[in-house]
Design brief:
Elements: H1 4-7, E1 16-26, E2 32-43, E3 48-52, H2 59-66, E4 74-79, E5 82-83, E6 91-95, H3 106-113, H4 121-134, H5 150-162, E7 168-172, H6 180-197, E8 200-204, H7 208-214, E9 217-221, E10 228-233, H8 247-260
Bound molecules: adenosine-5'-triphosphate and magnesium ion (MG).
Residues 59-60, 172 line the site of magnesium ion (MG).
Length: 268
């Protein structure tokens, strides 16, 4: 059962329950590296949460265990009450490195994501065209990744992920390599597509403003081995824009920056 989601009769999809989850890696030579301290977190279906924390605190590790790419050393993670035991097709990812196939066009990259679905060729094409249109890339279907800007490549990556209607979307600093203006455009596109598809999003960022502009909640992590030291609910109505912020936004921003400046967080 899905707890609060059941009580409010919202569909129980994409609810993530992280229970006492911890990760210790063994480096070559046998040295143990505690990457993630025991962490508890419930992420409600369809919500957008951010993880912020110092470099090396375990943000990517936490994403990787939710995605089933890295095994847990302790604890468990459930997606809609089913334990995550490995890579799950209901989970999509967008990372900073676009991960596109350079030998496929934009359309070819999106079509590739649909390969595992038993749908007709026509439907595959329709869906891929619609996904590229959704991210504003209609007319660029035949372009190869090497001929696209960084922002456009990330739009293809978004289209490729959302075309499969994932329950959960894991985003690891997806816009970290983009300039400030392109990032603002990407925020608008991401929020529009997220709103249309209702996926649960976990978004890792080093940028406090980005977390405050995008998320329902920001979870702030301590220096490694990381754990969540504070959760901030972000009350502002969307759309939120950096050129139109209020006093509460500034207070929230300063509060998070102070938390990140605590001893041990200096590597941010
Ligand atoms: N496969 C691995 N083997 C050994 N150690 C690892 C492995 N992956 C990550 N680590 C270590 O785990 C810790 C957490 O790494 P992680 O990549 O999760 O940090 P992060 O918060 O994402 O950092 P950044 O903000 O720099 O991306 C680091 O000390 C890192 O060196
Ligand atoms: Mg990382």
């Amino acid at each position: 059962m899905c707890g609060p989601a059941q009580a409010t009769k919202t569909p129980c999809v994409g609810r993530i329950h992280i229970k006492n989850a911890a990760v210790t890696f063994t480096a070559p030579g046998g040295k143990k590296i505690e990457a993630l301290a025991p962490t508890d977190l419930v992420i409600e279906p369809g919500s957008f949460i951010s993880l912020i924390g110092p470099s090396g605190c375990g943000k990517s590790t936490l994403l990787n265990v939710v995605g089933g790419f890295v095994p847990l050393s302790e604890g468990s993670i459930e997606l809609d009450d089913v334990p995550v035991m490995g890579i799950n097709p209901d989970v999509g990812v967008v990372f900073q490195q676009y991960g596109l196939f350079p030998w496929f066009t934009a359309l070819g990259n999106v079509l590739f994501a649909l390969k595992r679905f038993k749908i007709s060729k026509e439907e595959r094409l329709d869906r891929a065209h619609a996904a590229l249109k959704e991210v504003g890339l209609d007319g660029r279907e035949s372009t190869f990744p090497g001929q696209l800007s960084g922002g456009m490549r990330q739009r293809v990556a978004l289209a490729r992920t959302f075309v499969t209607s994932p329950k959960v979307l894991l985003m690891d600093e997806p816009f970290g390599a983009l300039d400030a203006q392109t990032r603002v455009v990407m925020h608008d596109i991401l929020l529009r597509v997220w709103d249309a598809h209702k996926a649960t999003v976990i978004f890792v960022t080093h940028d406090v403003d980005e977390a405050l502009i995008l998320s329902d909640k920001a979870h702030i992590m301590s220096a490694g081995p990381g754990r969540i030291i504070e959760t901030m609910e972000i009350p502002h109505e969307r759309p939120r824009h950096i050129d139109n912020i209020d006093e509460q936004f500034l207070k929230n921003r300063n509060h998070i920056i102070k938390l990140l400046r605590q001893p041990g967080a200096e590597k941010l």
